Amino acid sequence: MNDFFAVGNFIEGAYFLAALLFILGLKRMSSPKNARQGIIWAGVGMLIATLATFLYPGLGNYGLMMVAIVSGSIIAWWTGKRVAMTDMPQMIALYNGMGGGAAAAIAAVELLKLLEPVGVHDVLALQTSGHTLIVHVLAVAGAIIGTVAFSGSLIAFFKLQGIMKGVIRFKGQQAVNGLFFVATLTLGFLLCSAVELDATYRIVDAHFSSELLLGFFVLALVFGVLMTVPIGGADMPVVISLFNALTGLAVGVEGFVLGNAAMMIAGVVVGSAGTLLTQLMARAMNRPISNVLFSNFGSSSASTNEINGSMKAIEASDVGVMMAYAEKVLIVPGYGMAVAQAQHKIWELTQQLQKNNVTVKFAIHPVAGRMPGHMNVLLAEAGVPYDIIQDLDEINEEFATTDVVLVIGANDVVNPDARNDKSSPIYGMPILNAFKARNCVVIKRGQGRGFSGVENALFYADNTRLLYGDGQKAVAEIIAAIKTLD
Fold first, then answer.
1. Residues facing residue 391 across a β-bridge
2. Which of 3, 198, 205, 412 is catalytic?
3. Is residue 470 annotated as a catalytic residue, yes or no?
4. How far apart are CA 82 and CA 425, in angstroms?
5. What are the domain boundaries of the chain?
């Protein structure tokens, strides 16, 4: 008995240490300077929690556990090494979905235990297992949340990867989604109510069928799909963050079901951080979460105001002269920079301008790219110092005193219609004030619209010129033009 409590105390201590490392790691991830260290700390915490789990008394299936751990680690290491930075958003969506699926699988195992014949686990075993009604209800709730996060994240992955093109919308879609949600909750209620309790509310028997359990998970999977397919690409950063929060919540709930402190703390930390990030992302787009989930962003008719002016092209050599003799240059990166893999050339351009005593800073919009922090990661990969990378609130007032703004791959986040045109689908969305600069240069492949499908009035402004071509090649030509002036 003493040995049992000693092992239990050691496991709980290990879980506490792991949870502490999770929290400290997440805290250090809030700064790009410490993010790498924070990831290592959180990884060590996960390793400690995993090893401690092997010490649980009565635990079996060690072979299967090792197969899962080793194969999962190899796949994760291989994909992590091979994935391009442009594909990072879909990889995060995929891995997040795996977390939700794992939480749902835990719930499924716990619910299936109740269907075993009473001869396999007698009433006394059930009563001493601690599987009370509240634990049963939480298992069902975690199953819904985890399953929805799993299927929804997979759809987000398919959209970002280009496997699923566009959005799927049909008449009465919200009503259909509502029916599937109500049906899922109804089967969940039946699972919760079809149990027999003793005087202390511990479960002594279950009366639901395996078919009911299967139908419950199928409905939850379908609801996750239906909830995500109508959401447009411009909303993907918010959706990924939302499903991340749901996955954390599901893991935390299932941690309570298992009595696992590490899972509970890790799930609560991830869930709360994901919820806060989702709110911040939605605020950055000036759209409530309900609007992201149930409205068709960018699908309404175009602005009723005609855009005056025309798109005016410029040559890279002229851009080079303009930037070389400027006092201050601000660079606004977007997803197009990631697609062109132009971040290294952008940093080379920055260094060349700094040699000419030009002040250069980067302006980052919270929803630039396809996931939170996407542009920061790309620029950090290229070696851009953190102190010249600033977010919207820090940099927005400086546009009015800037000689040249270089926009590469960004669209909606610099569209002045978000301020000026109440009929625009993006009206009210906070934007970077690129239109206030003395000169604005936009690198674009062609005259197409952004990810939301909304025309950008900035491209027609008198102070804006468009440099057409591949982002990396265009920046290289600008660098070459500047060097000829030395």
1. 364
2. 412
3. no
4. 37
5. 83-294, 316-483
